[in-house]
Structure formats: C-alpha cells, structure tokens
Amino acid sequence: EVQVAESGGGLVQAGGSLRLSCAASGLRFEDYAIAWFRQAPGKEREGVSCINSDGDYTYYADSVKGRFTISRDNAKNTVYLQMNSLKPEDTAVYYCAAALSGGGYSYWGQGTQVTVSS
How many C-beta neighbours within 10 Å does residue 109 have? Predict the structure, then answer.
C-alpha cells in the first residue's frame, strides 16, 4: 500500500520559517516526481513547487520563488519544502503528491496546516 504523509506544519509569525516534509512508502520513491500544492480557505488549490525524480529540476510558483526551496533525499524517501520569509498569504493546507514521469499525481497526502500570523 502506498502511503504519503506530510509533516512540519504549524503556526508561525510573518517573516518566520517552517520546513515541511513529505515521506512516502510502498513505492519506488526514486522513480517519482514530487510536488507541493496548497489550498487556502475559499480558494482553489494551487501548485507551489515540484522536484523531479533525480532532484535536478525544480519548479516554483512566482508567489514563492526566492522564499521556498524544495529538495529531496531519496535514501530517506522524503522531500522537503523549506519555507522562509513566510507571509500571511502563505496560510493554507499544504499537500504533497507523487507522480511517475509523464503521469499524473497518483498519490496524495492528507495535508498539513500552515498558518502565518501577521
């Protein structure tokens, strides 16, 4: 059974930092691209960042570029999202998802809440 789980969310003041983790099991982790999405109350889900299976390609939404950094440790089956200079508008539930190359995001975690106070 494939399991994907996010952790590391919490409450932080504006300007602070958090590091989210996405751990997966039950799949060949090194074959999967991993993406982070977020959804704020009353808003549509948006893509935040993704990293390919090898870790040599990354993407960031304009809204987080320069503040967030995605990385992966295939030995630990984990992807990280380092979030710095957090803003209240970053408040959302953050989800990670896994996709085989060229495929859709088949496996999703349950999400972790990030709340940034002003």
Answer: 20
Place of tokens 């109350």: 41
pLDDT tens across 40-69, in order?
999 999 999 999 999 999 999 999 999 999
DSSP state of 27: S
Residue among 63, 82, 98 nearest 21 (CA): 82
Residue 36: per-residue pLDDT:
98
- Look at residues 69, 111, 88, 95 and name the one whose alpha carbon lies nearest to residue 11: 88
Backbone angles phi, psi at 28, to 5 degrees: -80, 90
Looking at residue 101, its pLDDT comes to: 76
Contacts of 37 (CB under 8 A, 6+ apart): 45, 46, 47, 48, 94, 95, 96, 97
Which positions ≥6 away from 20 have C-beta within 8 Å?
6, 7, 8, 9, 36, 80, 81, 83, 94, 96, 112, 114
The Cα–Cα gap between 72 and 56 comes to 10
